[in-house]
Amino acid sequence: MINNLFLCHRQNYKLSHAEKAVLPSECFTLQTCQRTLLLATLPPQFCQNAEWQVYRGAQAYEWLLETICGLKSKLIGEHEIVRQFKDAYNHYLLSDHRNKMISIVLQKLFLDAKSLRTDYLVGLGQRTYGSIVRKMLQPHIQQSSPHSTILISGSGQMAEEITQYLCKYYPITLSARNEKKVESLAQQHRAGLLNWQRFKNYSQFPFIINTISSEATDLFCQKSFEAWRQRHPKGMLVDLSSPSLIKKAGLEDQRIRNLEDVYQAGALRERQKIQKIIAAKKAILTILEKRVEWFHQKEDKQRLYGNAITSQSPQIQLI
Is the per-residue pLDDT at 236 higher than 80? Predict the structure, then answer.
């Protein structure tokens, strides 16, 4: 069973329309700002490209465990990756072509990851994107006005995580292309709304957090940026997009922070956290051995008794 699992991974990459069109119908797909990850029983042809990493069987499951536990993230131990996996899994359950084995693998992955995080990684990911961005903004907000409203552009997972954190400390205004999603997000966190594409109105906000990539929009230009900079000499622009929207526009200023700055601020060098990571990786090997044995036993029973034991096992939606 587990030997039929292939994992394909590519760092800092999003699938093209042509690649999406030839994906196997059973394929589980996870795309984030840091990676694209595919699970299938046969790797797509385009994954033969040298830039793709391909793992099989137990090695694939080990890689999945380290990833969902945040051990392969630039912000080590971050929790957002768990939600990204859950959202991708819930979307996968809606597919009529989902693969039963892949669904079972993912269910077991969530159980094993929860055990690992509880036993070895508590406190490791406390420095979330929201907390790091707040630390960057705080001195500038204190110099400007403690009641300054922060504009967050975008409605994706990163924008949602940052909004959820910052709304406890500052007034928030949201702006995004997906009107339905951003309205729901604003209602949930009591945030204001700014109509999408009214970029000239962005300059009224001294503090802006952008999560929209340069592939999605031309949100900032030199003219609008100059208007913002002159109006807010103590303001700050945090660009968390990938690819960078700010770099594409050719904008440079000491009051601009980007995704790399966030990663550096969240670098985990403390001895205690390193010890936790080492312990977690050792535990992963133990869990992996037991989980692989479980899959082999399940496969043996299926051979003996046919599909009756494993047919249509319940697909549990994660929240």
Answer: yes
User: Residue 233 is encoded by which pair of tokens?
Assistant: 């000499």
**Residue-range domain boundaries for the chain:** 2-125+270-308, 129-265
- The residue among 80, 123, 96, 142 whose CA lies nearest residue 275 is 123
The yes/no answer on whether domain 129-265 falls in CATH 2.40.50.140 is: no
CA distances for 254 relative to 229, 233, 235, 306, angstroms: 11, 11, 11, 65
* Ranges 55-64, 160-169, 246-255, most confident: 55-64
Q: Which two tokens stand for residue 71?
A: 């051990």
316 versus 71: which is more confidently predicted?
Answer: 71
Contacts 24+ apart (CB under 8 A), 174-177: 175/151, 175/202, 176/212, 177/212, 177/216, 177/217
Q: Is 250 left (phi over 0), alpha (psi -120 to 50) or beta?
A: left
pLDDT at 144 over 80: no
Location of structure tokens 């790091």: 132
Q: Which homologous superfamily is 2-125+270-308 in? A: Glutamyl-tRNA reductase, N-terminal domain (3.30.460.30)
